[in-house]
Amino acid sequence: MARPGAGAAVPVIGSDRLMSLDYTRGIAVMGILFANIIGMGQPYSAYAWPGGFLSPHDGLADGLWVAQFVLIDGKMRGLFTLLFGAGLVLFTDRARAKGGWVALALLRLFWLLVFGLLHYYLLWRGDILTLYALCGAIALVAVNWSWPQQLAAGLVAYLAGVVWNTVQIAPLWAANETVRGQLPEYAGVAEATEALIASDRADALREAAIAKNGTWLDHVVHVATVHRWEWVDQFVYYASEALPLMLIGMALYRMGLFDGRLDRRTQALWGWAGVFVGILLTLPLGLWVYFGGFTYTGTLLAQLGPMGLTRLPMILGLAALLGLSGSNPAGWFSSRVIAAGRAAFTNYVGTSLVMLLVFQGWALGLFGVLSREQLYLIAIAGCILMLLWSKPWLRRYRFGPLEWLWRCLTYRRLFALRR
């Protein structure tokens, strides 16, 4: 294979990487699987709403929903988004020295968008790569800002997004679950909500029928027809979270959160404080949904509204603590987490492929069958698989398979894969 010429921009390999970023990314990609497994093994609406399950959801499962709500939901995605912002700065800083960094960064994001669309239509419609590609292109405007500017802009935009989303969803909840629903301006809202739930359930039954008796092509056709523009809707909604978190991730990287420039004791204190405050704020919200009976609009409001605010301290706290752990890793587990993080792109898409085999009828056919507890066991198995394959592969090869392909497409040259 041809090697890049002298002076050319080249991808980061080996000792040039920041282990703390890879370690944190490894934890995040495994945590994301625990969140996504619900929407992979059950109808997509079950991701947030227990009522979307095709199998029974009660007792222990209800308590586990609260645990996931407090510890996982939005936190792993937020952590992954922070890292994407940090990675944008790291990439552009290295590319800028060679010139033409803007075009190179946009080309890199273009190919990420292509990968994301393929992932969405062919494997799983919970894809996040399209969101990252589009928001990343916007975030490039801020890569040269100072870290105080990036942090301030990110925090203000994030809080504004939380307020906006809450204001949009709260009337729907009020119309269905309070006496305000009897006011004239809310006429028909409850009926419209029931129609929406019925539509989701009908789609869930179609997905279950395809998963049981259909083929992979039937799965693709269903997504391409019924949900063909849903990724655009997801971008419109989640950009208010993703773009600000990318800016915050840029700021944290500039501040030295991932390379040991911050005082370790101070960083640890901030980290534990963030995690503690995040749990303290999110738990009452989860219990409110639990004791409210997991209503559709109550769950929706909690997930897409105020939880955006309560989880932010925990996202930042986890970033601080994992940045510390990854900067001085030791032991079997840490080395394998770092390897999983270095191959996070492959692991993220690869788990979608593996779970397609687990849940579709032309393979194991477990879609809509497993309980929440059993789905978590599948997620644990998926994480073990990530830890088992990533390190041996990277011992022999320079990049994960999709990382290598992405780099070759970005730099428009064929890099050596074998060590």
UniProtKB/TrEMBL annotation:
Pfam families xref list: DUF418 (PF04235)
Protein species of origin: Tsuneonella litorea
Protein name from the UniProt record: DUF418 domain-containing protein
Keyword flag Cell membrane: no
Taxonomic lineage: Bacteria, Pseudomonadati, Pseudomonadota, Alphaproteobacteria, Sphingomonadales
Entry's transmembrane regions: 27-45, 65-89, 101-122, 128-147, 154-174, 235-257, 269-291, 311-333, 345-369, 375-394
Ranges where the DUF418 domain occurs: 252-412
Keyword entries, A-Z: Membrane, Transmembrane, Transmembrane helix
